[in-house]
Amino acid sequence: MGPQRLSLLVAALAGCLLPARGCVICDPKVVEELSSLETDYLPGHLEAKHHKDVMKRVKQAVKDFQDLPIDEDSYMGVVDEATLEKASWSLLKDLKRITDSDVKGELFVDELFWTLRLAKDTFASYAAQFQKEVFCPNKCGLMLQPLIWCSTCQKQVHSCRKSRSCGERKVKVHQMEDMILDCELNWHKVSQGLTDYSFYRVWKNNSETLMAKGQEPTLTKTMVSPKDAGTYRCELGTVQSTPATIIHFHVTVLPKRIVEETPSPNTETQDETAPGEVTLDRPQTSATLQSQSPGPEKVLRHRLVGLLIGAIVVLIAGVAWSPHRTPPPRSSCRFPLPFPVPHPVLGAGAEAEAEQEQRGQEPSRARGARGPGCCRDPKQGKSLGSQGPDPSSFRPRCGSPSQPPGAPFLSPTQPPPPSDLGGLVPLHPHL
């Protein structure tokens, strides 16, 4: 058991000889709520003859909150303001729940004292948490911690004394850089009675030189040099004669950092290039080329677009250049002829030639005979056929673009006659 815990234990035992008040009742809000319970709630929910006895038992139960076993790990008779605030809020919440329920008679009394027992257990858990985590949190030095004594409800400053020195720290800094010495600890902000931070330079003969003093917990020295290496001491003062914190710093100054600067490959100055001298740009390194190369997503996207365009071009070329057959044109005549039409090559025969000779025209053996009634001779205005009905009774549609003028006419429904050209089969002119 440390000296600060021993002194606290003696004070807690001495407080037992004083009138007990309990930690929770040290909060004015709890006192006000108990007074409201007696004057406002009891008259309408409990017989008047029981008022005095019930309130006496309630106040005693609240005072019994401090009747906990004294243990340095669970309860030492003191708490801080935060712990008292949590315990009081828990009790006030339970009392409000009872008054809002509007219970009466014996049920009200039983509910009230059951709530007070639970509130005492809650306070015990809060006190144990405070003792383990909040009470004297400093690991070294002197901390002045404000505490509330449950026996007297008085707030006093307790001295948490630990080892005087808080150790040594090694600091390494490069030449021409800034040196920062930090003297602040996590419990400094909650401690009371602190004054100033003082930084000293400690020489080899143990003499000291004050370098800085004030509220700032850090010492900063810019652009250090080898002569700044050595030992420094930080001290945090208190209102008492004992300092709160003492820390030693051993500073080592390392050589200056070497920073390699790579000039830009395209940067040129007029001083570096003489008149009439040609300077070639340095080739880009692989790292530069790699940084300028597109990412894998862009490369994949470009490849997919190229493949799509190539496929479209191949498809269009295949459709344009693929061999195809043009279907034979339909007959230019709208009505079927009632007479047979001779073969376009041999069907005209000698009769067509004799008729043409009588009219003073040269026979057209190469072209053959035309279908009667289809196309007329522009000079005679008559049909070239010699047989069949009057072609004027028919109104065929002639002049098909696929059948040039002078070509022989062949009905699409009439098969060609057998050929006498040595077994050769004549072809249809439109196939």
Automatic annotation (TrEMBL):
Quote the cellular component terms of the Gene Ontology held in the record: membrane
Compositionally biased intervals (Basic and acidic residues): 356-365
The record's InterPro entries line, in alphabetical order, gives: Ig-like_dom_sf, Ig-like_fold, IZUMO, Izumo-Ig, IZUMO1
Gene3D superfamilies, alphabetized = Immunoglobulins
| Keyword flag Lyase | no
One Pfam family of this chain: Izumo-Ig
Instruction: Report keywords, A-Z.
Output: Signal
- Which SUPFAM superfamilies does this UniProt record tie to the protein? Immunoglobulin (SSF48726)
Pro residues biased stretches: 402-419
Gene Ontology molecular function: signaling receptor binding
Stretches of Polar residues bias are at 282-294
Which GO terms of type biological process are on file?
Answer: fusion of sperm to egg plasma membrane involved in single fertilization; sperm-egg recognition
Signal peptide span? 1-22
Family statement: Belongs to the Izumo family.
PANTHER family for the chain: IZUMO SPERM-EGG FUSION PROTEIN 1
Q: Would you tell me the protein name for this molecule?
A: Izumo protein immunoglobulin domain-containing protein
